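Notes from the 1:1 (GR / supervisor)

We went over the backlog. Supervisor wanted to see one worked example end to end before approving the batch request, so GR pasted a single chain during the call. The sequence is below; no edits were made to it. Supervisor asked that the structure be written out right there so they could see what the output format looks like.
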Amino acid sequence: MPLSSSSPAAVIVLAAGAGTRMKSDLPKILHSMGGRSLVGHALDAATSLDPDHLVAVVRHQRERVVDHVLEHNPQLVIADQDDIPGTGRAVEQGLEAIGAVDGTVVVTYGDVPLLTPETLSALVAEHQDAKNAVTVLSANVPDATGYGRIVRDDNGLVTQIVEHKDALKLAEDTGDSTIADITEINSGIYAFDGAVLARTLAQVSTDNVQGEKYLTDVLGLARAEGGRVATYVTEDLMEVEGVNDRTQLAALGAELNRRLAQRWMRAGVTIVDPTTTWIDVDVELAQDVTIKPNTQLHGTTKIATGATIGPDTTLVDVVVGEAATVRRTEGTEAVIGQGANVGPFTYLRPGTVLGDTGKIGAFYETKNVNIGRGAKLSHLGYAGDADIGENSNIGCGNITANYDGVNKHRTEIGAEVRTGSNTVFTAPVAIGDGAYTAAGAVIRQDVPAGALAMNAVKQRTIEEWVLERRPDSAAAKAARIANEKS
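Structure output shown during the call:
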């Protein structure tokens, strides 16, 4: 392992490709895994090197890509690839965007999401410590089909990179499969001496079958100048795997998730079934959190110590307090207090804040509501645009009627309130501390503290209504039988 490294002069991220194999209107590098775009992963790894210049080379759906990458990193330098194809031309235009540089230039890609800061740093350190002109990030694979082969001399230095088709043709023409049998492959990720790169790129032509300016041609030119061309071999093949289609997107996404789950388990999180648990890269989990099966944690969700999440739960940008329990719930941009209990079958919409030791129970939907400490919304209701005080108990079937067809209005419910089943609060309305509502009440006016609100009317019973109005119904038949028995 290299002993030291300094920050590179530049990192150039190639992000100009169309990615046609994705078969999507969305540019390939903007597809996401682990809650971050492919190019977002690449930019984060590149940024970790703290380069003097960070460049993204763009072309396909330029405006869309530029908007995204600048939102991710406003300090990014944008370089536009012209009509001359090839990675060599893309890197050349990346250099033109920042001018002459003195030092190391790293070239990487916007579709290699598992490449880690540690591996990039090790590549740079190896390059600088060995005083290489070019250092290739390589890997050994069991099957090199489709990859360029790393060819070395007797001293172990790189003499050339032979593309897969050329290696097969050479074996066919000569009967010598030595190069075709090589299992060390080129990742396409490099560290260059900046001066060597600029000088040799100017000599690379497009006089080849593809009509492209190949970046790999730089290696031969650098070697011809007497420069040292070597490799840094990564032990982790997945780090250099690119995404070309949705199958690879899913495969690398699953691998990223496996690694994240493993990291969290080693940090003291219990994940009962890692294969059905999905965790985004920006999620934060504390020690002694328990994640049950079929749980998805997205965005910037944060789970505090001792909380239990799941099963069958999806949280997006949700904050969960210590020792809280959230099961069979879907929540977005909500806050769940310490020791609170949510679920099952609960829908927390943005703006939901549940206080410590509070409860939102089965078949409840909430939105833009502040629920005080110890308050309970136990089952079958809706609370939206409301404030509910501490230790209030909201009965089964209660709803806040917050929308008048034009505007939203708030419902204010005080502390220690008790509401009967099927109460409807017609907002705007306020319920004072310690007040009660009777079952079936429709609250249209403010209720003073300690009062009972009710809309009771005398029950009216019409004898034999079913027999007269529904004589042929099953209900009428049952009624006749019951009457005959009485």
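Supervisor's comment: The first strand starts at residue 10 and ends at 15.
Batch request approved.
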